[in-house]
Amino acid sequence: MGQTRKTEYYLDLRTDYGFKRVFGENPDILKSLLNEFLHEVIGRKITDVVYLQTEMLGFSNKEKRIIFDLYCEDKIMNRMIVEMQRAEQEYYESRMLYYMGRSISKSVKRGDLKYRMQKIISLHLLDYKSVWFNNSDELVRTIQLKDDKNKIFSEKVAIVLVNLCNFASRKRTIELPSLRHKWAYLLKNMQKMTLKDEAKETDPIFKRLYEESRLSNLNEEEMEEYKKSVLEYQDVQDAIECASKRSEARGMARGEARGEARGIKAGIAEGIVRGENNAKRAIIAQMLENGLSVPIIIKLTGLSEDEVQSLS
């Protein structure tokens, strides 16, 4: 007999719909999340959050537009970019810098000869195995602009990375060592939580998180939109896994064939490299075959619209 599917009561916060609905419509919940992960780099507690336009057009028609997951500022005009990243991208670090650079350029007013810019902090919630954490138990990495003596050059910019991959196993939230760990765990596992978990929760902000994440809050149209977002998330994960396996298999086969002439070990190594180089193209093709929209693929891969269209 097939395994019975467990009833879900809450949104999956890793999905585009779930994340933006909960954190993009509830400034008190977003403020708590930001305070937990950004307090050290901002240097003070965030008391208020104002949402900003998430789409930023290029300065010309030829320049790339960007769309943030969330973009906001606090009471003293510190600006914060918040991204839930669901899959690894080859050029994700470049995308981080580009998003911050555009935000910096928009923060300085025309005619300001003193270049008075707000502090720009970029928070990235990573739902994949990032090289920045290298399979460690580390939860947070902070990247700042420093010189070779480790002296901070400017406190105006910082990137904060949060590792969600160590929170896949089901455990009681009371066992988690800090509020940071609890936030990361619920970001990863909200869709697995039960009504009993909500009833046991005593922290006011996490009670709010449970309340705003309830699937029962959605009307029929919203539920269809959420289901579509879940399928897109699952398709991305399936496409990455499938394409990676195919690429590795092709690489191994090529390497083994050439190994007869060059030595088995060297041939397999070369085949794997070639397979990795083809992985990205295979992933994009798989996404298109699975019906993912071009805007979603652009966001997940960092490719331009022309590059994606050339594969369709």
Give your account of this protein's structure.
This protein is of the alpha/beta class and 312 residues long. It has two domains: 16-217, no CATH class; 221-311, no CATH class. The chain has helices at residues 16-23, 27-42, 92-107, 179-189, 195-200, 204-213, 220-262, 264-289, 294-301, 305-311; strands at 49-51, 55-56, 66-67, 70-74, 79-85, 120-126, 140-146, 152-163. The strands form two sheets. A six-stranded mixed sheet has the order 1-4-5-6-8-7, with helices on both faces. A hairpin with a 5-residue loop joins strand 7 (140-146) and strand 8. The chain starts with 15 loop residues before the first helix and ends with a helix. The model has no long low-confidence stretch (mean pLDDT 82).
Secondary-structure element order, N to C: HHEEEEEHEEEHHHHHHH
Approximately how much beta-strand content do the residues carry? 5-15%
Integer average pLDDT: 82
Q: What distance separates the N and C termini?
A: 39 Å
Note the total helix count. 10
- Number of spatially distinct domains: 2
What structural class do the secondary elements suggest? alpha/beta
The rounded Rg comes to 22 Å
Find the count of extended strands (DSSP E, 2+ residues): 8
User: What characterizes the major β-sheet?
Assistant: 6 strands, mixed
User: Which ranges are low-confidence, i.e. pLDDT below 50, for 5 or more consecutive residues?
Assistant: none
Global outline: globular
Identify the notable features of this structure and list them briefly.
2 domains, six-stranded mixed sheet, alpha/beta, 14% strand, 312 residues
